Amino acid sequence: QVQLVESGGGLVQPGGSLRLSCIASGSVLSWGPTGWYRQAPGKERELVARVTTRGTTNYSDAVKGRFTISRDNPKNTVFLQMSNLKPEDTAVYYCRADLPSGSYWGQGTQVTVSS
């Protein structure tokens, strides 16, 4: 069973930065693309950023230019560097790995952007 654990969320002021981490149990993240998603209260979960096994990335228009996704395969970790955060970035952020055996989600980490 694959387990994903997110960390790095918290409360930050507008314009601030946070780095989220997603650590997988076992050496699995190199087997498939991994993405960060978010869900704000009353809204559907949406894709924020995704990175393939070859390192190709894509971002939602809402975060392009402010967020950077990266992966460290030897450490089984995917990161989301978030800069110039805005109140509308407030949400629970989830990591998802799409592996040959299926898709797996982490439990989420709360990001709150507020002054």
Fold blueprint:
Blueprint (H helix, E strand, L loop, with lengths): L3 E4 L2 E3 L5 E7 L9 E6 L6 E6 L5 E3 L7 E6 L4 E6 L8 E9 L2 E4 L3 E5 L2
Parallel strand pairs: 2-11
Antiparallel strand pairs: 1-3, 3-8, 4-5, 4-9, 5-6, 7-8, 9-10, 9-11
Any low-confidence stretches, pLDDT <50, length ≥5?
none
Strand residue content: over 45%
Query: Which shape, going by the Cα principal axes?
Result: globular
Q: Structural class, from secondary structure content?
A: mainly beta
Taking the sheet with the most strands, its summary is:
7 strands, mixed
What would you note in describing this structure?
By secondary structure, this protein is mostly beta strands. It is built from no helices and eleven strands.
Please summarize what this structure is.
With 115 residues, this protein is an all-beta fold.
Features of this protein?
115 residues, mainly beta, seven-stranded mixed beta sheet, globular
